[in-house]
Amino acid sequence: MCLIFVQHRVRAELPLVVVANRDERHARPSLGLHRWDDAPHIVAGRDVEGGGTWLGVSARGRFAAVTNFREPMLARSPTAPSRGALVHAFLDATVDTASWLDSVADEGRRYNGFNLLVHDGHDLGWYSNRGGAARVLEPGLYGLSNHLLDTPWPKVVHGKARLGAMLAAPEAPPPSTLIDFLRDDRAAEDAALPDTGVGLARERVLSPMFITAPDYGTRCSTVVLVHADGRIEVTERGYGAMGARGEERTIAIDEATARGPAAAPRASSARLP
Question: Could you tell me the end-to-end alpha-carbon distance of the chain, in angstroms, rounded to an integer?
Fold first, then answer.
């Protein structure tokens, strides 16, 4: 993922709301949202190349998502383990948020730069191997892109303000409205762009909430709603190159859906995320 907003324990009826865009090369094959055949308690997309995922939930009430930490190519190791495997590992685990993040922090140097957001059904936590100690987060609304938590990049600042107003309404907006909110392709002004070592032209391309480019861009938008009674609803809309709209799907985790997996879509390098 490259842009995630998480509202934690602000609305009593929705203790966790996640609104996120995944940005990736269009040539990288992946599966859209589905229940995994080899781990039926997990609902997530899947990175065919690395085997993990960028965002997922489990029937055990857990949520996890990862973003890369943007840095020059020279800072990355081609032999580092997959960061998407960290999401899979948390969804498979049974330990609490703080304990699990502490264990990841012990091994963080093995990976290229990343951020993790994880929720064990009660506590929300964040850790970056470029940002120091893991934190269990207080109730509130948080924004995360490809730097540290709540780094004031334009799309994080403006997105949090707009989303906060939407989520403060008496009636929480439906997933389709939240996904439409994510499709904001306005670039930031040059003076507001960060300098992450990738050059000004690339910073411009990467500055919108919704990225459109021939080779790289927003592959899917995902909304996760965790209800007070424990029900989890995940909605995902896929996109192809230059923002071409693909499949939209919703999977709800409750007593009924926990008994059988939803079929996985076919692997795709563009139409499906």
Answer: 11
